[in-house]
Amino acid sequence: MSVTQHFDTTATDCPSSSKPDPAQVALVTGAAKRIGARISRHLHQRGLRVAIHCRHANEEAQQLAQELNSQRAHSALIVHSDLNDLNQLQQLPDQIIQHWGRLDILVNNASSFFPTPVGKVTATQWDDLFGSNVRGPFFLSQAAAPYLRQQQGALINIVDIHASKPLAEHSLYCMAKASLLMMTQSLAKELAPEVRVNAVAPGYILRPPDDFPDHIHDTIVQRTALKRQGDPQDIAQTVAFLALDAPFISGQVIAVDGGRSLHM
Question: Which residue is catalytic, options 7, 100, 130, 173?
């Protein structure tokens, strides 16, 4: 199954000028909602063109693309891909090159997250968590690497503070994020000097969407040094810093957790 592109009507037409657009291009996976959407908006505000990747969140992706294209024409497009399908994800960077001619920044943000208590773990859960958090990001990074090298670009992985400090009943997720952390450091060494590779490790940024007990929320906040929950903008600004403002930083993981990891 090949990668399909779905654009807002304002994004399908090429710019009227024959001159190429010099703006940098970022691909953000899982970009239609939550932290991914905030990263996309912030990079767009910094002047980048943004490829909004989604798998199922078509309506949210359409709304985001329309929002960004209304602010600056031809600056956002939607790309659909199942990151567990190697044929699709390996074609994803090529689709962006065909549309815009360059790829400067890759943000591996898409991720599955759910509990896996020992004794109840299934192979399907293993494949889902390792596929979205390790396998997909690795093979997408591999496919994007030649284009990132051409632009002296940057690769940013969204890991988790639980990549180094385990979360109860989430062994597979923590193991997968630990692998993504090591992938960050390994690719930083292998893709140097052309590509800088770093990671952002969020702490308690968004309250889980399901019924999340108030007492657990309060406990987490109290065990955070800054005594408050973070905001997706905190992650977006850190991603932009690493991508655009840190030319001598590579192979690093920045925890954006309000000091939560001090008390873990």
Answer: 173
Model confidence, pTM:
0.91
What does the pLDDT average to over 56-72? 96
Q: Which of 95-99, 177-181, 203-207, 250-254 has the lowest mean pLDDT?
A: 203-207
Is 173 among the residues known to form the active site? yes
Cβ neighbours of residue 252 under 8 Å, at least 6 residues apart?
198, 199, 242
Which residues are CB-contacts of 14 (< 8 A; sequence separation ≥ 6)?
Answer: 74
Mean pLDDT rounded to a whole number for the chain: 91
Higher pLDDT, 22 or 236: 236
Cβ pair 112, 250 in contact under 8 A: no
| Degrees, nearest 5: CA angle 127-264-116 | 25
Secondary structure (3-state) at 53: strand
Please, are residues 57 and 136 in contact by the beta-carbon 8 Å criterion? Answer: no
Q: What is the pLDDT of residue 153?
A: 98
Integer Cα distance of 151 and 103 in angstroms: 7
- In this structure, which CATH number among 3.40.50.300, 3.40.50.720, 3.90.1150.10, 3.40.50.12650 belongs to the domain 4-263? 3.40.50.720
Residue 261 and residue 264: Cα distance in Å, rounded?
A: 5
Fill in the amino acid letter for 3: V
In the chain, where are the structural domains located?
4-263
Among 106, 89, 95, 92, which residue's Cα sits nearest to residue 24?
Answer: 106
Task: Encode pLDDT of 150-203 as tens digits.
Answer: 999 999 999 999 999 999 999 999 999 999 999 999 999 999 999 999 999 999
